[in-house]
Amino acid sequence: WMIRSRVPFDLVVASDCSYDFVKPEIPSPSIDGLLFSARSCGAKALICVSRRPNEVEAFDAAVARAGLSPEVVFSGELEAAKVEGVGECIVYAFDFRPPSPAAPPSADDEEAAGEADGAPDAVEPA
Length: 126
Prior knowledge:
alpha+beta
């Protein structure tokens, strides 16, 4: 109840949350649940995925199945890869907000478009 009364959050952050992936073509309940939760709880999300065998590929496949289009905003190698057990992490940024409606063109926009196309301005009859 407490969380539901406060959604959507401005930003959801998740890291190291996928464990049951097998192959990219086989759906992963934890990744699917993570994407569903992020989408239903936040306006935006940053999700960090570790480069373990098939993990990034499974995440990308789940994202595609969900019809999402995140942007990779960071990819970096860990200095202590042997200690951490992971050599690279990738951060995906999601924006779940509905697209804002396009503003109608202003008179200045229409005038600039007319000048840009090289066509003469319309002449109003006298």
